[in-house]
Amino acid sequence: MTNTALHDRKIVVFGATGYVGREVVTEALLRGYQVTAVARDIAKLSALPDIVARQSIDILANPEIVAEVLAGHDVAVSALRPATGQENLLPEMTRVLLDAARQSKTPIFVTGGAATLKLADGSGHTVLSAPDFLPDSVRPIAEACEQVDRLFDQYDDVRWTCLRPPAMLIPGEKTRNYVRGTDTLVTDHDGVARISFADFGVAMVDLVDAGFDAGTRNPQRLTVGYRSQVAAA
Predict the structure, then answer these.
(1) First CA to last CA across the chain, in angstroms?
(2) Which of 10, 54, 81, 182 has a CA that sits 20 to 30 A from residue 125's CA?
(3) Global pTM exceeds 0.85
(4) What percent of the chain stands above pLDDT 70?
């Protein structure tokens, strides 16, 4: 359900110009959030709708600014993904955001990775540990996401949620029809774990909405994916 009338809830999205970040911004606007988009590249931020507030921040170079930004918002979303060849920066970038969330006491929703999710075949293997499951080209980001996942255990005093995509996060329609899981890949009728960027953005903002409804909650790791043939088509 969408609401185009602005309400007083403020959300800040880090990595707002990436595939996931743009979808989170779009969905949050549809629901009436006051959105601040954060990215390093000010030129890319200019492509967002005029209603979006914009801040260009290099969070590794200026970590002291991040807590101030979070303090001015009700909730934060991280959709950070370093450029190819710089995947090793992701754990430290996430640490900066978690430190800021701790300091500002702001709930934070982090886009994780599928690396630590178990395969649905009952083998006990994860996406990262399963032989020949991942192409070599995506192993660097998968290994970085595994490090990020371990990082969360140091922040049990922070209200964080890590939403991990399925094995395939792809372009596609916004169906609003997905299934939520915990530590195992959600697979569709063909046994494939996938979701569109658009529906992943929907799932993230659904969690943000649920967080407001539930109030204080414990940290949690979740995942999403398509289950039905209609949604996966």
Answers:
(1) 22
(2) 81
(3) yes
(4) 93
Tens digit of pLDDT for each residue in 68-103?
999 999 999 999 999 989 999 999 999 999 999 999
Q: How far apart are CA 228 and CA 230, in angstroms?
A: 5
Q: Looking up tokens 């200026």, which residue turns up?
A: 62
Neighbour count for residue 88 (Cβ, 10 Å): 13
Strands 220-225 and 179-181: antiparallel
Helix (H) or strand (E) holding 9: none
Residues in the chain, total: 233
Q: Could you give the dihedral angle defined by the CA atoms of residues 160, 165, 166 and 169, in that order, rounded to the nearest 10 degrees? A: 180
Distances (CA, A) of 84 to 26, 36, 205: 25, 25, 27
Kind plus residue range of the DSSP H or E element containing 180: strand 179-181
